[in-house]
Amino acid sequence: MNLALQKTIAFLFLILLGFLLRKKLPAKEQIGGIKMLILSVALPAMIFVALLNIEIELSLLYLPVLAIAFNFIMAFATNYMLPVFGIEKNSSTNRTLTMLLPSLAPGLSCFPYLLEYLGEEMFAWAALADVGNKIFVLIVLYMLAMSWFYKRQSGTAKVSKNEKLKSLMVSLIEEPVNMVIVTALLLLTFGINLDSLPYFLQNAAGRLSAMMTPLILLFIGLAVKVDKSQIKTILGLLVWRSGLAFVISAALIYALPEATPVAVLILAVAFPQSSASFWPFAHISAISSLEEKNMPEDGHTFDRDLALAVLAFSLPFSTMIILAICSIGGPFFTSELNLLATGFIFLACGALPFIITKLREKSKEEEENEVSVVAE
Predict the structure, then answer these.
(1) Domain range for residue 87?
(2) Is residue 256 within 8 Å of residue 265, measured between CB atoms?
(3) How does DSSP assign 44-94, residue by residue?
(4) In angstroms, rounded to a whole number, what is the distance separating the alpha carbons of residues 267 and 123?
(5) The whole model's pTM is what?
(6) In this structure, is residue 354 part of a structural domain?
(7) Is residue 333 in some structural domain?
(8) Is residue 370 in a domain?
(9) What number of CA atoms fall less than 13 Å from residue 233's CA on the CB side?
(10) How many domains does the chain fold into?
């Protein structure tokens, strides 16, 4: 069994272990404590290490640009497609999925396979492309989440506008992730990277960062609550998301020169298939905590249970797709025509059942209206 597959099994085992530990941690406060440890310690440490390790090569600057362009294309497409899946606009479900589906978590689902099948150079390229994805999930999605929260907060008359704005600014400043991002960016501005820091700081940050992956996977297993009625929608959206990623990869490969190495082409196909990121869930949790303090009777901007369910399904789904891409490789997954065909098949399989259901419901409504008119 190759190393990448063993890593994936280890990740899935941690989720299963978290699920089995539910009886040992039955209280909501206990699981909340693990979430707080992730959001306040492990996640900020991981972001700090990741940002201070960034080494951008000017010749490869297009990689993070392409990655963030993919994020935005996926975000716009998600916004327009969710109603097709029967999800109402301006609902907590819509906002939650709009946060999660455009995000990528290559570290969990993609990097092990790129290193195993494509080598260190393509792994380094993927890490550089992930810089663009990090900008999107850490900054753009956070701003989007806060804008939604503020719009809903402004719609209530419980607190004055100045007090709401003050509360929002205080929450932004106090959020550990934001403090870490600002600190890391300031250090990078002055030419200070991780190697420039004292060893004890490097060591502490590295050890705290290493907690992130196992804690996230255990937390998903502990906290995930899958509504059976949502499984069909989640799987349909993941298949549709994968299909759109294949279509985008086909367009990118078509634009690349004919002499492009096969490894680069496989990278262009595998990277966009990465699973949904945990970081949007971190933003969702932060907003939900604010709402519990400031808007206890006004519902929630996001659906945390749905977000965890999407993460739980997304990791194994994306892993299987990426494993197939890397193991089969070229010439199938380096042909834009094959990618287009695969993409359209996935798009159809993901969305068509919901389109048919919607058409049937519409037809039934029209028939009922016709019967009522005749009866009158």
Answers:
(1) 3-362
(2) yes
(3) HHHHHHHHHT----GGGTHHHHHHHHHHHHHHHHHHHHGGGGTPPTTSHHH
(4) 9
(5) 0.79
(6) yes
(7) yes
(8) no
(9) 20
(10) 1
